[in-house]
Request: fold
Amino acid sequence: GPPKRPPSQPAASPSPGPGSAPPAGETVERTADFSDGRIRLTSLRNGDPQKASVAYFREGEAKPFHSEQTHSKTGLFERRLLPGRYTIKVTDSAVVGKPSVVFEGVEIPPGQVVEKTAAFMAGELVITASLNGEPVSAPVEITDEKGERVFRNATNWPRKGTRVVLLPEGVYTVTVKNPKGQAVRFDNVPVAPGASKTLAAEFPAAP
Reply:
């Protein structure tokens, strides 16, 4: 019969030693595993593009490893990220109380774009103060329905007697004081998303 194969030559081809090229196909997979993904964020206020602050956290970490802002006109931002899981916090800093939208466990796959939209709602209060018909700076305090103070500015405010405050939807009490300590209070002031309301605090002449 045929000669027997000597034991010094194993039938299976030898596994590649250190430094040898990996089998075809493996390299491609590895490259894909390490290619970056992208996050595309859009921030809106009352449905319109609006600048917002963005903080990126690695899973399980309390401090963000990067912070930036979305575009002031388009509300858009795109960033390259290593594949993995992230928490992304988007904050509308212009609104009283700085409301945030938090996306937890955002999976960024290799070579793919993940899209997220943070939609904020807010209404506008225009507060004016006048003394004897002339604009005046006056301290302003705003409390919510629970009676908790959400906004306070003690001095030189509003400038030229007018100030715009952005607030989350709700019902508020607004108190405006003049330098003589007289106060004008507005109770049950409704704030609705996208709506603007003007409050005029008019102080009489001091006797």
Q: What stands out?
A: The first strand starts at residue 37 and ends at 45.
